[in-house]
From TrEMBL:
Record field: compositional bias (Low complexity): 300-311
Identification of the protein by name: Nucleoside-diphosphate-sugar epimerase
Residue ranges of every copy of the FAD-binding domain listed in the record: 5-41
UniProt cross-references to SUPFAM superfamilies, sorted A to Z: NAD(P)-binding Rossmann-fold domains
Residues forming coiled coils: none
Organism per entry: Pseudosporangium ferrugineum
Length: 324
């Protein structure tokens, strides 16, 4: 029976752990608190992933080490490097594959908003540079590794613009104040598709040594996504109002989270398109579909819509938490 170590028990880490356990594997989930999904084949361990000695010990005998961790959004340059270095060392010392949960930050703004696996990593922002350095260090670390890159998450437990802005408006029957263009086409990645891609590619040596995009459904606007969720749950579609772009930028002068969000706002003020055809054709993976993600979200949140009321206040700078 093979063994895997999963660092992180957020929506992706928990989904990876469950997939592996249900396939008969022994799984060790590592978090600071010792949290994680309950399953007879899942062992939950409380440990600091930045402790390289401890992580190497916990990875002993594992075939795959999954990086599904997430760091405080305002402290990426401080928190990510030691965790990434510890994972590279743990994978190298134990001859384990390092499977990295990635995102699209490393590309930076792109003309037309389209990104494929061949798009160069050209980000100049703080968070984009952190992700670029993590990937380059992994490639230079003398290990078998790959990165699965997805767009903004939807699904149970996923944090992002849908859960922070749209869902509360739908549930309460209020207006959603959107920090972006509600009609710009946008790719959404189902958390379950990210987990399935990580697990599939970790077992296939063709994946190692490069990055892959998670197969995701065709892009839809925020407005369409909200309408589909509302129709699925029998709720009125929310009214959407565009938050002026200067709001977050001005708030960022005093509020660290607002500053971090403003750095990435290009993702929602224009097209943001993930091309995952190469991953799909190479590994035979297809997305479960947005409706599957929205049904899962509806079941987990069990919304009880109220009658449409007065518009909600615009979101505070800390209301929109990023998915990764």
């Amino acid at each position: 029976m093979s063994t895997s170590v999963v660092v992180g028990a957020g929506p992706v880490g928990a989904a990876v752990a469950r997939l592996l356990a249900e396939a008969g594997e022994s799984v060790r989930v590592v978090t600071r608190s010792g949290s994680g999904p309950e399953h007879p084949r899942i062992e939950r361990v409380a440990a600091d992933a930045a402790d390289a000695d401890r992580l190497s010990e916990l990875t002993r005998g594992a075939a795959v080490l999954y990086n599904c961790a997430n760091m405080a959004y305002t402290r990426w340059p401080e928190l990510w490097p030691p965790v990434s270095a510890a994972m590279i060392r743990a994978a190298r010392e134990n001859d384990a594959v390092l499977a990295i949960t990635g995102n699209l930050y490393g590309y930076g703004p792109r003309p037309g908003g389209r990104m494929s696996e061949l798009t160069p990593l050209a980000a100049t922002g703080r968070k984009g540079r952190v992700r670029i350095a993590m990937w380059q260090d992994a490639l230079a670390g003398g290990i078998r590794t790959f990165e699965a890159r997805g767009s903004d998450y939807v699904g149970a437990g996923a944090d992002g613009i849908f859960s922070a802005v749209l869902l509360p408006a739908i549930v309460r029957g209020r207006t959603a104040w959107l920090p972006g263009d509600p009609d710009a086409p946008h790719t959404w990645t189902y958390v379950g598709d990210m987990a399935r891609t990580l697990v599939t590619l970790a077992r296939d040596e063709r994946a190692w040594g490069r990055a892959w995009h998670v197969p995701s459904s065709p892009a839809v606007s925020v407005r369409e996504l909200a309408a589909r969720y509302a129709a699925l749950t029998g709720s009125p579609a929310p009214r959407l109002r565009r938050l002026p772009r200067w709001v977050m930028r001005t708030a960022g002068l005093a509020v660290p989270m607002a500053r971090e969000l403003a750095e990435m706002d290009y993702q929602f003020y224009g097209p943001f398109l993930l091309d995952s055809h190469e991953t799909a054709s190479t590994f035979g993976l297809t997305p479960a579909g947005l409706d599957a993600a929205l049904r899962e979200l509806a079941q987990s949140s069990r919304p009880t819509p109220s009658r449409r009321g007065s518009p909600a206040a615009p979101p505070t700078p800390t209301a929109v938490t990023p998915p990764k």
